[in-house]
Amino acid sequence: MTDTGSITENWLRDSRTRRPLAPVQQPGYYPGYDVMGQKAFWDAATRRVIEERLYKIPQIRFFDESELPTITAVSNRIVPQDDRTPERRIPIVPFIDDRLYRNQIDGYRFADMPSDQEAYRLGIRAIDETARAIHCMPFGDLDPLKQDFILKSIHEEKRLAAHAVWQKMSIARFWYLLVGDCVGVYYAHPWAWNEIGFGGPAYPRAYTRLEGGLPEPWEVDEQRYAWEAPSNSISDLYDTHKGTGNISEQEVTD
Amino acid sequence: MNRALATIDQHIKEGRFQRSLALVAATSSFVSGLEVSYEHYKGSYSNPVMYSPVALSGLLTATALAGFFKKSAAEGPLRWIAAITLADGLIGFGFHIRGIRRKPGGWRLPLTNIVMGPPIFAPLLFGTAAYLAFIASYLRREGDHKHESEIRYCGWRGELREGRFQKHLCGVAAAWTLFSGVEAWYSHFKSRFRIWAQWTPVILAPIQFGACIGGIFNSRVARRMLPASSAVATANGAVGFFYHARGIARRPGAMRHWLYNLLYGPPIFAPLLFSACGALGLLACLLRRESRD
Amino acid sequence: MKTPLFGAFQPPHEDERILGSMPRISLKEMQHFRESEPVDYCIVGVGSAGGVLCQRLAKAGFKVVGLEAGPFWDTERDWVSDEKGSHKLYWTDLRITGGEDPLALGENNSGKGVGGGSVHWAAFAPRFHPSDFRVYTDDGVGSDWPISYEDVKPYYELLEREMPVAGPAHFPWGDPHGYPYGPHPVGEVGNVLIKGCTKLGIPVVAGGPIAILSGSRGDRPHCIYRGYCIQGCKVGAKASTLITHVPEALRYGVEIRDRSMAFRISTGRKTRVNGVLYYDDEGREHFQRAKAVIVSGYAIETPRLLLNSACPGHEAGLANASDSVGRYLMAQAGNVLLGRFSELIRMYKTPPAHSMTEHFYETDPDRGFARGFAIQTVAPLPIAFAKQMMKAKGAWGWGMRRVLMDYNHWATLGVLGEILPWPENRVQLAEEKDQFGIPVASVTFTLHDNDKKLIEFGKKTVMEVMRAAGAEEVVQESRYAHLVGAARMGSDPATSVVDRFGRTHDVSNLFICDGSTLPTQGSANPGLTIQALAARTADYLISQGEKIFSSEERDMTPPPVRRKLAVAGTFVHGIPRLWN
Q1: Residues of B with CB below 8 A from A41's CB?
Q2: Is residue C579 part of a domain?
Q3: What residue numbers bound the domain in which A144 lies?
């Protein structure tokens, strides 16, 4: 886990002044917005599920002791939370571990992929092997920038090392599995909803202001601030040609 | 011009303005009929009873028009149809209250469900418009001295007939102000008072309401404050009509989606209905007060 | 207000099962047929088609058992207003997917549970166009249907009133018509579509057609515009057969066995089926005898069941003498264009489905490909949006955090493109087995030339619409929507699985009635068509009566449209049809 106690190079920076921005309890453009403050307006079943997500963090049962440091470090780069104070960081790995342990899958496996569980074991192995091959250290011990470079190589489908592993599964699909799971956990969490200004559960009380992006009486106006990613990261870059379907990755929806 | 105004004033003082009020009632029931038709279309006529105000307003408009032309229509059918329409409005109010209750959360989410549910006071506005026709059926007709019927009414109906119903009409105007003011408030709340002018009917309605209630108890209020407040309310409604029309025209798709934008843009007739509370107040201040018992 | 009046909303106390914020039903009086006594119809899958069939056939007096692999939902207790918590609504058991353009059969593929796909559909409910039924004759691609639009039209009108479907007073495309329920208010995404289309001179409709109530009807409240359609409508405003047809089916004596996974259709005397074998919740095997079987498992599970029911005389799978079972599988192109706007959008409010245009639906020879596409509003919730950005912008790390912080500035529009039926796009059995030991489905999918050109053009067009609406940045994610075919209908037993009434060519008392029978898919969401065909199939079965159970004769007389069998109250509510 990156230590933000004294290292400002992990911090965001103000775009105008370039000065480091200290971590806050709630990043995002909706200061003071708290979805959980509205929970009395939700139905009981939903409230129970969201509260469980907040308060009941699953035990680690799937990843073993050698895998855990790597997958933890990986998730910290895929969904970096250095702009959050430590007690307000959303746990990612326990929820991924939980779904893999309970074999809760999305209902399909690509022909060129193993099962999700096997994919994670292979992928974590590949990431560690790559770290050792390039830097002679396990992935978890590398500094964030080096970790980002290795992850970026996977994102770009460059097989820098661990070729035996990448023979067994599609590197692109593994990337989507990994990132998809990480964001699937992060953005399921009420603190992330606060960050992005999402209304949260909406039954029995829903919305009155449907047009014009107007906030509900209990929502908060947007207050933007210009920020740059920390200097020890390279993940604040986009790659729009990926979206044209080159990797032939598709999903079926209704 | 002065003579015309003087004649109108005299007619009003004598309660001799049945034809005019019938015409006003025909217009207002036509407008509220159009309003209820498209609002109930939004509600998809999901309950067949939603056709009743549409049918009745058509009937009332026709009857009130007939009442403009013929005295017999004004004194017979108009009274009954107006009463039935008024009853329909009360029943509609009951349905709307029930409709709000049956939304998820019901009355436990008062603001949300009033804003998003069936418009709470619209049926009462509809009924009050019918009440104007009902009043008209009791008045005397313009230019009717020679053929004045021998009908004599007692009590409040007698007062109506002789044009002494200022307090009564202040009451009607107060109700109208309350209903249209609340409608304006929650509708503008829905769009978050994005345009500052949306505050004006919300500020003016309580003032007008106060003037109308004051006018019931105090004839000076009725003669001084009520006309001033009513004139402002009337003008405000006209301004609101312009804003609403502009709002509809500015919606995506503009006139190409005229029906959709009429349905879901700012309600086009609502400001006119707000104006009417001012118009009623203006009429009330010209009337004579009920004789003391 | 910190809480609703009288405090936070509490769990319900009733014993009854809840199907929306008001509707209640009791399963205490549900019929229980004995397995050893053959019922008239055993319906596998109580989803969009299965729900309608149960209602119609039970109301007509038949003894019907519906088997559903998933649960019989209690919407208040089982469903949550949350993306992550809703995975149990979808068919998440294992399937293998391959081919050159493999379909990721994700969470929004088919549903599981009573109501099936109609529980989680976004509820767009347009009709197919008349041209969809004769694509081969008109454009030389795909294949013709053995029926025409005119055969289905009365059922479109009927189901549009039964669900009901809310939409514009005049829907100008295909066979122009109006809707019995008024249009819905749009969200800001709808405004983006309308603005963009208006600027480019493209006709567009607002507020539908969607199978969501725009006015309360009976004990179903109208939409409260909460945007969680795809997570199941807890309000009861969105039509799913769970709430529209199943309650009445129960009143007329249907038995619905939930958590019952059918694994084999049993064949008795050579050319006839005699029942369905299934596993219950505890894995125990059961055999329900039936005089006729209708398979309504949707485009993957239906062929899977038929293939798994192979037996002597049907070695390639039940009813598969044509080798067509599993073939001609189609998904529609569902590319999503995401546009960023300087003003706030907040697309999570309102149903994702609320506005569309079919201006590009029909073939335009100048475009260089056959058939076309529709453009529809979509509105992903945060997790779906993040996963779309993962692909559309290659977002991860700080880039992902940044774009999601901007969530409220993004609007999304979807292409819905007609991919043609190809025999190589198919469902087969894989070696893997599921938790019951049943071989799972393996899906193969590859785009062909016409499909690729169509998708490119569709993407470009929607991008133009986005820009015309004022988007500063537009990105795209490739995906697919819906899934039909794989047991298609046709007049020729050598190239199709079922006839024009859904009866399999090979087995005279085995029927298929769901999205798998569609020979082509148009650019229209299939939900309304599936339910309309189910009503039509039911009418046919009712007309044939006992002949289905005892005779090999195939009477092809079209049945009369039985409006009286529509759900009670259908014709009391709504607006009379003003156009046609």
Answers
A1: 105, 109
A2: no
A3: 8-244
Asked if residue B253 lies in contact with residue C204, where contact means CB atoms within 8 angstroms, the answer is yes
Asked whether residue A227 is assigned to any structural domain, the reply reads yes
A107 domain residue, yes or no: yes
pLDDT tens digit sequence for A112-169: 999 999 999 999 999 999 999 999 999 999 999 999 999 999 999 999 999 999 999 9
**Token reading at C66:** 């519906």
AA identity, residue C462? V
Q: Is A235 inside a domain boundary? A: yes
Contact yes or no for A175/A80 (Cβ under 8 A):
no
With bands split at pLDDT 50, 70 and 90, how would you rate the model's confidence at A244? Answer: very low
The answer to whether position A251 is within a domain reads no
CB-nearest to A203 from B104, B192, B194 is B104
Strands C410-417 and C373-378: antiparallel
- Mutant choice from C17, C92, C401 vs A, greatest count of A C-beta within 10 A: C401
Q: Summarize pLDDT for C18-28 with one digit per residue, the tens.
A: 999 999 999 99
> What's CA A109's distance to the chain center, in Å?
22
Instruction: Please report, for residues B29, B58, B131, B136, C341, the alpha-carbon distance to residue B26 in angstroms, rounded to integers and kept in the order given.
Output: 5, 9, 11, 11, 48
Residues of B in contact with C572 (CB under 8 A): 48
In this structure, is residue C6 part of a structural domain?
Answer: no
ipTM above 0.90, yes or no: yes
Distance CA C47, CA C54 (A): 10
What are the angstrom distances between the C-alpha of B41 and each of B36, B254, C215, C551, C573?
8, 20, 9, 50, 12
Residue C502 near residue C476 (C-beta atoms within 8 A): no
pLDDT tens digits, residue range C467-512? Answer: 999 999 999 999 999 999 999 999 999 999 999 999 999 999 999 9
- Number of domain units in chain C: 1
Q: Is the pLDDT of residue B79 over 50?
A: yes
Q: Give the pair of three-digit tokens for residue A84.
A: 């959050």
Mean pLDDT of C555-572: 94
Contact between residue A185 and residue A95 where contact means Cβ atoms under 8 Å apart? yes
Q: What token pair was written down for B40?
A: 């109930």
For the stretch B251-276, pLDDT in tens is 999 888 999 999 999 999 999 999 99
3-state SS, one letter per residue, for chain A = CCCCCCCHHHCEEECCCCCEECCECCCCCCCCCCHHHHHHHECHHHHHHHHHHHHCCCCCCCCCCCHHHHHHHHHHHHCCCCCECHHHCCCCHHHHHHHHHCCCCCCCEECCCCCHHHHHHHHHHHHHHHHHHHHCCCHHHCCHHHHHHHHHHHHCCCCCCCHHHHHHCCHHHHHHHHHHHHHHHHCCCHHHHHHHCCCCCCCECCCCCCCCCCCCCCCCCCCCCCEECCCCCCCCCCCHHHHHCCCCCEEEEC
Our CA angle for C541, C546, C551, nearest 5°, is 100
Q: Which residue would you say has higher pLDDT here, B151 or C108?
A: B151
Q: Tell me the CA distances in angstroms from A80 to A123, A235, C77, C273, C281, one per residue in order.
A: 19, 9, 35, 58, 42
Q: How many CB pairs under 8 A join B and C?
A: 91
Quote the CA–CA distance of A69 and A57 in Å, as a whole number.
Answer: 18
Q: What CATH number should be reported for the domain holding residue C380?
A: 3.50.50.60
Give the number of domains in chain A. 1
Distances (CA, A) of C304 to A87, C266, C308, C318, C329: 49, 14, 6, 10, 12
Residues on chain C touching A82 (C-beta within 8 angstroms): none
* C10 domain-assigned: no
* B282 touching chain A per CB within 8 A: no
- Whether C467 is covered by a domain: the verdict is yes
Q: Where are the domains of chain B?
A: 18-138, 164-293
Q: Please tell me what DSSP assigns to residue C102.
A: -
CB contact residues (below 8 A), chain B span 57-116, against chain A: 104-105, 109, 111-112, 115-116
